[in-house]
Amino acid sequence: MTPTTFTVLLYFNDTILTEENYSETYISSQTAWVIITNTMTMVEVKQTILNHFNMSTVNEYEVDLQYRLPIFISATTAHYRSCKIFVDDNVETLFLMATEHVTEVHVEIMAFITKMHQSAIPSEVYYDLANNFN
User: Fold this and answer.
1) How far apart are CA 53 and CA 50, in angstroms?
2) Phi and psi dihedrals of 22, rounded to 5?
3) 3-state class of 130 per DSSP?
4) Are 60 and 116 in contact (CB under 8 A)?
5) DSSP labels, 12-37
6) How much is the pLDDT for 129?
7) Model pTM?
8) Would you give the distance in Å from CA 6 to the centre of its chain?
9) Of the options 3.40.250.10, 3.40.1110.10, 3.10.20.90, 3.40.50.740, the CATH number for the domain spanning 5-132
10) What letter would DSSP give residue 120?
């Protein structure tokens, strides 16, 4: 597969509004331009986004992604369709759709990022408890 890159507009932890004709608008006070490649895995896309916001690894954050592409552009209005990105195949689908539909506008991604909760009991305690029963 020939590597293809897109510069996407990234929205961070905010709102998706559904409008008339099933079009959606992304709204966020924090946005950024991020470059992704069609050869990236889902984990690599998530890590690229976390790096951009100076966050650490995908092991520490849960990242849910949704992308928005124009499906129809009239003289005055662009109508968008949103899709969630769950697996590596969805990254490839994003690029396939983008190469078909994106001409005058750009791909947009909304990233919902939350810190994963750490266990209240350290792993050493589990080990000590297990050893007491031997």
Assistant:
1) 5
2) 65, 15
3) helix
4) yes
5) ES-EEEE-GGG-EEEE-S-EEEEEEE
6) 45
7) 0.69
8) 14
9) 3.10.20.90
10) S
Q: Tell me the residue length of the chain.
A: 134
Q: Tokens representing 16?
A: 């998706």
Task: Supply the DSSP string of 50-100, one letter for each residue.
Answer: HHHTT---TTTEEEEEEEEEEEEE-SS-EEEEEEEE-SHHHHHHHHHHHHH
* Residues 6 or more apart in contact with residue 55 via CB below 8 angstroms: 61, 113
Give per-residue pLDDT as tens, 49-91.
888 877 777 778 788 888 887 777 777 777 777 778 877 777 7
